Amino acid sequence: MTYVFKGGLERPGKMTRILGPWVLLSLNESHIEFQMRFRWLARLAGPWRIERSAIRRVYLGRLNVLTPAQVNFLAEENMPWTFLARTPQAVLDAAEKLGYPVRPEAPDSTA
């Protein structure tokens, strides 16, 4: 089963931040994939794919008045891929149904 959500994206270690509903997040049992919604944009950036085995934790980002709700996918490089979602709880629920390691809170800095 595959779940698809529209939102934005922040890539780890890059100065890339795509606001608005320009990115599709596809969640399935084997991997997650971020891709641009429109073909003409897809020629410029993406797609980005992360295997499920590389994802250590999925959690909500800090809530802030200036930014949309964030769902973070913490990968092996210890830097989160941040999906900017309108319905972050739906993204977390879908990830949990697919067996991803979902934690409702952000990881502590000692882990």
The secondary-structure class comes to mainly beta
* Widest sheet, order of strands: 4-3-2-1-7-6-5
Low-confidence stretches: none
Beta-strand share of residues = 35-45%
What is the chain-wise order of helices and strands? EEEHEEEEH
Mean pLDDT, as a whole number? 83
- Biggest sheet, open or closed, and with what strands and sense? 7 strands, antiparallel
Cα-based radius of gyration, to the nearest Å: 13 Å
Our measurement of the CA-to-CA distance between the termini, rounded to an integer number of angstroms, reads 31 Å
Give the helix tally. Answer: 2
Helix content estimate: 10-25%
Tell how many strands the DSSP assignment holds: 7
Shape: globular
Characterize the structure shown.
The longest helix is centred in the C-terminal third of the chain and has 10 residues, at 88-97. The chain has a seven-stranded antiparallel sheet with strand order 4-3-2-1-7-6-5. The mean pLDDT is 83. It is globular. Strand 2 and strand 3 form a beta hairpin. It contains two helices and seven strands; from the N terminus they run E-E-E-H-E-E-E-E-H. It has helices at residues 39-42, 88-97; strands spanning 3-10, 17-27, 31-36, 48-51, 55-60, 70-75, 80-85.
